[in-house]
Amino acid sequence: MVFLKFLLKINIFIGRRIAFLIAKYEAEDEVQEVVKTQKFDLRGMSDRLKNVMLHDQEVIDKRWDICKGCEFLNDNKCEKCGCYMKVKTRVATARCPVGKWEKEYEFIKGKKVNGTQATPEL
Fold this sequence. Notes:
Blueprint: H1 2-37, H2 45-52, H3 57-68, E1 73-74, E2 77-78, H4 85-88, H5 102-105, E3 112-113, E4 116-117
Antiparallel strand pairs: 1-2, 3-4
């Protein structure tokens, strides 16, 4: 019986590994297709980045104050989503993973901010 459990664990491990490798190679193939068909131009990157960044310092400060009081903030990094919150508080369409920014998010819900569409409701 112990031997069968051992074989079952090995079978599960191998199955998971094979599924991971298949997904990895399929994703790499799709990325290569996109890279081949599209030209990537860094000259327009600054405009796209500028549209994503939040320029309202009051909202940025409110978000950061909420983060500073959060139990999931550790060394300026959120333990829920893994993001560095000093950066995430400045992204216009970013959401708090535990929903603490909802009041600060209301001003952009469903609207374009800096040329960027707000993220949809989850």
